[in-house]
Design a protein that fits this description.
Helix content is 0%, strand content 48%. With 115 residues, the chain is an all-beta fold. A six-stranded mixed sheet has the order 2-10-9-4-5-6, with no helix packed on it. A four-stranded antiparallel sheet has the order 1-3-8-7, with no helix packed on it.
Length: 115
């Protein structure tokens, strides 16, 4: 049974930082390209960042480039998202998932950027 457990969200002021974690189980993590996604209230879910199986290659949506860093630890079946210089428009529920199989979603973690 696939499990995706996101954590690390919270309320932060503009310019602040958060580190999200996603612990996974139920599939072979190390052979899956992983991504972070987000969904703001009233909007469609969007892709934020992806990381290759080895962690050596990453890609980001333009709006977070230079501010967010995705990484993974294959020994811990965990993917991370370091978010710096947060902006109010980053407010959303953040999810992790496999890039090539999104049949199941976790509960996500709420990130709110507000003064």
């Amino acid at each position: 049974q696939v499990q995706l457990v996101e954590s690390g969200g919270g309320l932060v002021q503009p310019g602040g930082s958060l580190r999200l974690s996603c612990v996974t189980s139920g599939f072979t993590f190390s052979i899956n390209t992983m991504g972070w996604y987000r969904q703001a209230q009233g909007k469609q879910r969007e892709w934020v960042a992806v990381v290759s199986t080895s962690g050596g290659n990453t890609n980001y949506v333009d709006s977070v480039k230079g501010r967010f860093t995705i990484s993974r630890d294959n020994a811990k079946n965990t993917v991370y998202l370091q978010m710096n210089s947060l902006k109010p428009e980053d407010t959303a529920v953040y999810y992790c998932n496999r890039v090539n199989n999104k049949s199941f979603w976790g509960q996500g973690t709420q990130v709110t950027v507000s003064s």
